[in-house]
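Weekly structure sync, notes
Attendees: PL (lead), two postdocs, one rotation student
Agenda item 3: pending single-chain targets
PL asked that the sequence for the first pending target be pasted directly into the notes so everyone works from the same version. It is reproduced below exactly as submitted, 252 residues in total.
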Amino acid sequence: MKTLENKSVIITGAGSGMGRSMALLFASEGAKVVVADLKADRVEAVVKEIASKNGTAIGFAGNIAREEDVNKLMDACMAKYGTIDVLVNDAGIMDDFTPVADVTDELWNRVMGVNLFGPFYTCRLAVRQMLKQGKGAIVNVSSIGGLQGARAGAAYTASKHGLAGLTKNIGFMYGTKGIRCNAIAPGGVNTNIMEGASPNKFGFERISTGMASNLRMAEPAEVAELALFLASDKASNINGTVVVADGGWTAF
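Predicted structure, written out during the meeting:
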């Protein structure tokens, strides 16, 4: 039997990078996947790739920072699959390493919207459904930037610290209800998250002082394997925690 046989899984940010790798891996392990991403062309491409490998998937294009889009996402999963067994919040954006003195309201709100408000919206609805089912698993993708203060700018750092706290609270609150919630804190990963970035000069100089201690970059597939484990029954006793997957970067 496959690891996620017949389980319905929503993955945000699944159009590229780690989310795409998760969608492909989860589908290969028997999951019925909802591929969610802001960009419709990427959603379509991933759904087609899963189908070409005899997997099951539907696509959803929307912005998880908008509560109405999240409502539609959850409704789409329920209409197609009837359950929400696993939720993976992978969607995230960077903040150009902007230090607090230079953070605009627009940047703050945009980063918080995707990195923290979106996971809050999805978790709130998913937990309500999982309570009805009596079980469920949530995997949030945080960052070592959510554990340390020198890996990104002020908005990103605050959003990922917030996501780590939200994860722990959900895990504790609902652990007796058959619902687990964990987070992954990757280090450097070879994705397109810096696509179109315009790094703040001062902020980038400051965070660059620790870059040499990064032993290596990870590949998206490596993070996907950890997400699969945390989403599965094999991780039945892992709950309310943040698992660091940074190749040893924060060991320095």
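Discussion points:
- The domain at 8-251 is CATH 3.40.50.720 (Rossmann fold).
- The mean pLDDT is 96.
Action: rotation student to compare against the earlier draft before next sync.
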